[in-house]
Write a structure and sequence with these properties.
The complex is a heterodimer of chains A (about 190) and B (about 230).
Chain A (H helix, E strand, L loop, with lengths): L1 H8 L1 H48 L4 E5 L8 E9 L2 E13 L2 E10 L4 E8 L6 H8 L25 H23 L5
Chain B lengths: L19 H18 L10 H7 L3 H25 L8 H23 L1 H7 L10 H9 L6 H31 L1 E2 L2 E2 L6 H4 L1 H31 L1
Antiparallel strand pairs in B: 1-2
Helix pairs in contact in B: 1-7, 3-4, 3-6, 3-7, 4-5, 4-6, 7-9
Classes of the chains: A alpha+beta (about 190), B mainly alpha (about 230).
């Protein structure tokens, strides 16, 4: 006991503890930086491919041109004009919303009349089963203006046991709809 | 490196340097422990959250099981190598850093090279960090045994986890979804089994089966010894 007490009060004892922890965390940080260096380009490429697939899914057969997103709507990451030939078919809006497990990115397609054509998830940290996501997302196409969950007075049924996720997607869709509205009301910006 | 004076397993730890035969016997014991006798899911009840969440289909079960196994082997070996360097006051912090590092590596690699599996497992890959099987084995085994035994323990515990997950995944996918590996084989489905409560029911049945088999083996052994 005595020696343990002495040991505990000595500087070498603390130096050893701090040193070990510092050494381990430093090695781990270097290792992770290396792995990140190797995987980052591939992950970025896959994310870009996923985004392209998502835009094709919500706005099939269109050519996309990026536009500056309206400033007054929060959470808009990307705003793309979807054109078939010369005619503007609609818009693809990439939005970020806050789900049950942190940030969630959605791709929302809105047609020229302001109706949702489709919603897909680009990235998420939800604990909800992947099939259930599809079930939820299929409830949005066709709605316009402002969407709301049935339990909040709207007409979209939430997935039971996943109210937070359902609300998050609803918020994301609303941001996208608001962005499109702001864009179209902003008139013909050249 | 192979001394294990502090091993608190049910194993008799030899005082003298181990002979080849003893070493083999010990390895066999570790393997049996991981696969059946101390199976992390069916006997130790570790990592239940991930078990319930990803055992809804066989593919997810295999993916989750093997990812966990990879992390478990790496963390067991590293922790075993570092066991004499790490002061015991900060050992848990050190283990968590090492485990989190390997989980992040697995997560990044899956995202880059197996994106479909990464999408299917989603948040449950990063959550391997808090899977108590990994920290549990680090504390109960790797910190008290040499790297060879720790690696064997990682493999057998990991495979025990994978096998139990697969058994649950197979049963739940077949009876709850009427499919095997996504191919529809049964016309009827018992949706209850795909729901979380079904997971507990399947788990209960598997645990009972394991106990039955264990008891039978033990009885046989006892009888054999007495005879």
């Amino acid at each position: 006991m005595e020696t343990a007490e002495k040991k505990r009060s000595s500087g070498a004892y603390y130096a050893r503890i701090v040193g070990t922890l510092a050494a381990i965390t430093t090695i781990v940080a270097v290792l992770l930086a290396l792995v990140n260096l190797i995987t980052a380009p591939t992950i970025a490429r896959l994310a870009a491919e996923k985004k392209a697939r998502a835009m094709e899914e919500v706005m099939p057969g269109c050519a996309f041109t990026p536009e500056t997103p309206p400033q007054d709507v929060d959470g808009i990451l990307d705003f793309q004009l979807a054109k078939a030939g010369e005619e503007t078919k609609g818009y693809c809006v990439q939005v970020e919303t806050n789900g049950f497990g942190g940030a969630m990115q959605l791709m929302v397609g809105v047609d020229a009349e302001g109706q949702v054509t489709g919603v897909t998830i680009l990235s998420h940290g939800e604990t909800l089963n992947t099939d259930k996501h599809g079930e939820l997302l299929a409830r949005y196409p066709g709605s316009s203006g402002q969407v709301q969950l049935a339990k909040d007075g709207g007409d979209i049924e939430a997935i039971s046991g996943a109210t937070v996720t359902s609300r998050a997607v609803t918020r994301g869709v609303n941001s996208a709809l608001a962005a499109v509205q702001a864009y179209t009301e902003g008139g013909d910006r050249a | 490196m192979t001394e294990n004076k502090t091993a608190q397993q049910a194993v008799q730890t030899p005082e003298a340097p181990e002979t080849q035969a003893k070493k083999q016997g010990r390895i066999k014991e570790i393997v049996l422990n991981g696969l059946i006798l101390q199976n992390p899911i069916l006997v130790l009840f570790l990592g239940m959250c991930a078990t319930m969440a990803v055992s809804t289909s066989l593919v997810n079960a295999v993916g989750m099981g093997l990812s966990t196994t990879a992390v478990l082997i790496c963390s067991n070996v590293v922790i075993s190598l570092l066991r004499k360097l790490i002061p015991k006051e900060v050992r848990i912090a050190c283990y968590v850093v090492v485990i989190a590092a390997f989980v992040t590596i697995v997560d990044l690699l899956l995202k880059a090279f197996l994106p479909s599996l990464s999408d299917a497992l989603g948040i449950f890959i990063p959550l391997i960090v808090v899977n108590c099987i990994i920290l549990g084995r680090a504390e109960a085994f790797a910190s008290k045994n040499g790297p060879l035994y720790a690696a064997v323990d990682g493999v057998s515990m990991g495979l025990g986890f994978t096998l139990a997950l697969c058994a649950m995944g197979l049963i739940r996918e077949l009876l709850g979804g009427g499919a095997i590996l996504g191919h529809q084989v049964l016309p009827e489905k018992a949706i209850l089994l795909a729901a979380p409560c079904g997971g507990f029911l399947v788990l209960g049945c598997l645990v009972a089966l394991t106990q039955y088999l264990k008891a039978r083996v033990a009885n046989k052994k006892k009888g054999g010894d007495e005879a």
